[in-house]
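Entry 12.
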Amino acid sequence: MNGEILTILEAIERDKGIDREILIQAVEAALATAAKKSLGIHDDQELTVTIDRKTGRLAVVSADRTFASVDFSRIAAQTARQVIIQKIREAEREVVFTEFQGRVGDIITGTVHRFEKGDIIAELGRAEAILPKSERIPHEDYRQGERIQAYVVEVRKASKGPAIVLSRTHEGFIRGLFSLEVPEIAEGIVEIKGIAREPGDRTKIAVSSKEEKVDCVGACVGMRGSRVKNIVREMHGEKIDIIRWHESVKEFIAAALSPAAISEIHESPETRQALVIVEDDQLSLAIGKRGQNVRLASKLTNWQLEIKSRSQLEPQPQTLQNVPGIGEALEARLREAGITAMSQLAALTREQLTQIKGIGEKTAEKLLALAKETHEAQATPVAVSPDTEATTDQSEAQAATVDEVLPPEALQESEEQKQGSESYETPPDDPPSSETEDPTTSTT
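Predicted 3D structure (tokens):
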């Protein structure tokens, strides 16, 4: 038994990666417990078991006597075996915990093992990790045995071993993928200044270069878009806008709102608010579908952005035509009296209106109330703060605000606008097979 126990512990050390000294100490504690039961020694009495690190010889010593190892009974040996197994399991869990604790914030690759209530259990060699449903990209679908990459969010101790929590929605996942694909980022030449993301839909990432000769955007895109295509493919088609970071707030905001062309920016550094003015045909592009473009730009720049078009800054007098509540006959009577705009109507008194042929006091009161309400109502600009969340309710509220400013058809991006969009997109299940199928890429 002397040399055999050391041989076993050395084999466990090689297979499990557990330090031999930890195993020896676990065996000594287990044998001490077994010796007390076998020899009838009370728990309050001292008894130590020592294993010689070179020969494996056992020494069992109590306060007043020394026992030979042959005095252990079969029951004591069985008890020692169970305790040893438990200690080895605890030591193995500690090794796994220590290993993955050091990998928090890294990208890790595993295999889909099983599914539990919408969560994915991934196999990572000798450990398992959980990818909660809330940390999965919407509309992603995995099958058992499929390869999966994720970001290590947290590693904590649990009763059944280390609990490793993964995420594919975390901003660190995008940052890690770019570090893996772009050597300049891994080497520190190109720096990621900020990331704004709505998982599964769109991401804006701001980058800068520490060396003048290195184009930060070009490095991230790669030859013919090869680098960013790999990231988009891993994200299952999520659009990625690569923005060049600028020290100038105006230039950075203008770049963040791409692909829209910005006319003017009036910023307020004290409140970190900015009024962005665009031409009428660029308003829908600056806002984006359900306000996504301006929302991501606000998060990326950490500024509250307010979008207005030229026509909103220069409101035109509203005529009486097609105003709800004013029919053709009433509009004709008012036009005969020289009243053609709502502002003119709002400036009249009830007595002046009743002097017009065909208009009584009740009609005059209704017209004045309608004129006041219409004249004072102004189109609401789109203002988005950096902490705006892209929840369903908020998206619908944002869309309603945009609808008040623009007609429904203006919310649809034209083909010309789409061609000017500085995003990168690759079909997840049908990657390009030739140069003619490559997606259009451009830099900001």
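Annotation: Confidence is low (pLDDT under 50) at residues 391-422, 426-443. The first helix runs from residue 2 to 16.
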